[in-house]
Write a structure and sequence with these properties.
By secondary structure, the chain is an alpha+beta fold. It has 19 helices and 28 strands. The strands form 6 sheets. It has a 6-stranded antiparallel sheet, sandwiched between helices. A 5-stranded antiparallel sheet has the order 2-1-5-4-3. A hairpin with a 2-residue loop joins strand 10 and strand 11.
């Protein structure tokens, strides 16, 4: 059956800049049905096409390509191709041909539909207001509004406006909007930024004269200034050469005069919540229909919807920038450790929209070649959990620098969480470890946290059994206690939050077994960065994951020849002996220039211990990136710095220490206390141990939290 009726079927998406003819093709590749607009598309009457081979639509050079396109229908495949079709007046036109198989009886006619889409001639584009409105409004706002990224939304917007509404379009918004600040009512002199430009006339001068990213203030007397001052559309049906030259003169931008000569332009303000956000500049080049009042009305309807999309993107960008600024301020930018300890970390937020959570980690170098390794997890997600995490991390950082033992530090944190819980219930888990690189021991305390993993250099590994305690902020339960372990050189110490080993589809025991397997026998010689990557392998695709924080440390003792220890009797003569021991050791280390100062510091510390502490005294020297002098005694009373009066005979020792040393401090031990002081070693950077989070040449999720 042959017919001039339009075949039924879902046509490929079309736009207002093209016209489509639908043809029915039978099994012998002949046209058996033809849409009624054959004359408008191909300049031929429908009757002239019925019964003819489909390959007659194209020139000889494209017949084989069209035949292959139609053959794909035999196996039920839809194919597209760009070919030159022949018109009835002897001319040709480029067209997009889409062959679509029909579903049904293979013997019925037609067996396929052929869609022929040709571009409208310039004189016919933008003629049909209903077609133009449908092209702009139907599903287009949804398409470019699906993204909450400001730049991506703007690019989608201009790709809709061109070619449905004009030939050239650009989007300009307030600079304060791009900067994620609150947008206030702006005058015509507001600073704007162009965030998207596109054109379809093939003239590259548009994007070079109006570049994306340009920040500018439009001069008075230009239509661009007018739309910002009035917040109303500016309609210029035709810009003659004189008007275009005047705009170029005021703007001091010569190429503008040539580009805008004889064009039609409309500037559409974008207004959301009674606030002007910017405008869309739409231009039709010579040869196309000029903008009229009805076009302006259609454009303003589109601009109103576009303003909502831009405003939503702006609000999201501001909220996300706030959340990221919060996260960057809460998580450490650097990790520090003794030179013999290598540390790596990974942090991965659970939410892709708001990259903020309650997990945190710390690696803090302590005096005496020690390091505090901490991982914690505040219950919950989002900004509230992050704020609580920030409070805990700041407090714990302070407690670490005060050199409280791990159990005592967590007890103070527990009291803090109880106090915070009076305002809003909170609880957190935390594991706190202090590794001493001179003795090779690690002291660990845990409050409701998962057990640390220790992998030995021989390939064995185990989860360390730490005395259990309830989470921080949970009243009742056992007291927080610590346990000390001896660590072999080269061992890997891993602490983590529960998001790494537990999710909705995996039991926590399986996750712990997986982590233990990663740090198996082959992990001894693997680079730390590879191990850090391996811990997060396979978790990125989990859309329902919890926040994840991981801290990995390769623990090694400092060399034996870099520290020395002596036990001195409680005798005034010990001061003179200490001077000799210090002088000899510094000579062996090649630090003769520090001999006098170190002797004086050691004398003051030992004299203070002799005066106030009973029993023998221990003197230790440690050379790492700094020179540390420690004096250990059996008194738990911590010395206090005070300024002696002129007639006082005592009280000046610690003042001398504070003036001569780079820094000094004290800490309690099980048997008494340690008073220490630190000096800068000439030619050595004391902060070289600090490792910037995120590694050169490598990128990974969560990396943006740790970069400046």
């Amino acid at each position: 059956m042959r017919s001039v009726m339009a075949p039924r079927g879902d046509a490929p998406a079309t736009d207002s800049a093209s016209r489509t003819l639908v043809l029915g093709i039978d099994g012998s590749r002949r046209i058996v049905q033809c849409g009624p607009n054959a004359r408008a598309v191909l300049g031929r009457a429908p009757q002239d096409l019925i019964g003819r081979p489909a390959t007659d639509l194209v020139g000889d050079e494209a017949k084989a390509e069209l035949e292959a396109l139609l053959e794909a229908n035999d196996v039920g495949q839809e194919r597209n191709g760009v070919m030159t079709v022949l018109r009835g007046d002897g001319t040709s036109a480029d067209a997009v041909l889409t062959a679509q198989p029909m579903v049904g009886d293979p013997g019925s006619a037609p067996s396929a539909l052929l869609y022929v889409r040709v571009a409208l001639p310039p004189s016919e584009r933008y003629q049909d207001p209903a077609l133009m409105r449908r092209a702009l409004m139907d599903d287009q706002v949804t398409r470019f509004g699906a993204s909450l990224d400001l730049d991506q939304s703007a690019r989608g917007l201009v790709e809709v406006v061109v070619p449905h509404y004009c030939n050239v379009a650009s989007v300009l918004v307030l600079e304060s909007l791009v900067a994620a600040d609150e947008v206030h009512s702006e005058s015509g002199s507001a600073v704007l930024r162009r965030i998207a430009v596109t054109s379809d006339d093939g003239n590259a001068a548009w994007t070079s004269t109006f570049p994306v990213g340009e920040v500018l203030v439009f001069p008075e007397g230009t239509p661009y200034r007018q739309v910002m001052e009035t917040a109303r559309p500016v309609h210029l049906p035709n810009i003659d050469l004189g008007a275009a030259s005047e705009i170029a003169r005021l703007w001091r931008r010569g190429p503008v005069g040539e580009l805008l000569s004889d064009v039609s332009m409309v500037l559409l303000p974008m207004i959301a919540r009674d606030t002007l956000l910017g405008f869309i500049a739409c231009t039709r080049v010579p040869g196309f229909r000029k903008f009229d009042a009805y076009d302006v009305e259609i454009g303003m309807e589109f601009a109103a919807r576009a303003a909502i999309v831009i405003d939503n993107a702006r609000l999201f960008s501001r909220e996300r920038a706030t959340a990221l600024a919060l996260q960057r301020s809460l998580l450490p930018n650097r990790l520090s450790a003794p030179s013999s300890v290598e540390v790596r970390h990974r942090y991965l937020p659970g939410s892709k929209l708001v990259e903020v959570g309650g997990d945190w980690y710390e690696s803090i170098a302590l005096p005496g070649a020690r390091v505090a390794l901490i991982v914690g997890d505040v219950a919950g997600h989002g900004v509230r959990a992050a704020v609580t995490m920030g409070r805990l991390r700041t407090a714990l950082h302070t407690l670490a620098n005060l050199e409280l033992p791990p159990a005592d530090a967590l007890h103070v944190m527990h009291e803090l969480m109880i106090e915070l819980g009076e305002q809003e219930p909170h609880f957190a888990t935390c594991v706190y470890a202090v590794y001493d690189a001179t003795t090779g021991t690690i002291e660990i305390a845990s409050a409701g946290h998962l057990p640390p993993l220790l992998a030995g250099p021989a390939g064995d590994n185990e989860y360390l059994q730490v005395p259990p305690a309830p989470p921080l902020g949970v009243a009742g339960g056992a007291a927080i206690e610590s346990r000390e372990f001896t660590v072999e050189d080269g061992s890997l110490f891993v602490i983590y939050t529960d998001g790494l080993v537990e999710n909705r589809g995996r039991d926590i025991d399986d996750g712990l077994a997986r982590l233990q397997k990663i740090f198996g026998p082959d992990s001894v010689d693997r680079p730390m960065e590879d191990l850090a990557k391996a811990t997060l392998a396979g978790v990125y695709a989990d859309q329902h994951r919890d926040d994840i924080a991981v801290l990995i440390a390769r623990l090694r003792r400092i060399p034996e020849d870099r520290h020395a220890s002596w036990t001195l009797p409680a005798d005034p003569a010990a001061v003179r002996r200490a001077r000799g021991l210090v002088r000899t050791r510094l000579g062996e280390w090649g630090l003769e220039e520090l001999e006098y100062t170190t002797e004086l510091l050691a004398s003051e510390l030992i004299t203070n211990a002799l005066r106030y502490a009973p029993g023998p005294i221990e003197l230790r020297l440690l050379l790492e990136r700094t020179l540390v002098c420690e004096v250990l005694d059996r008194s738990a009373a911590l010395p206090r710095l005070r300024r002696a009066e002129d007639d006082d005979e005592n009280g000046r020792g610690l003042l001398v220490v504070s003036q001569l040393a780079h820094r000094w401090g004290t800490r309690r031990t099980a048997a008494g206390k340690v008073v220490w002081c630190e000096q800068i070693v000439p030619g050595v950077d004391p902060d070289a141990s600090e490792q910037v989070s995120g590694w050169p040449g490598e990128t990974w999720p969560g990396e943006n939290h740790h970069r400046e």
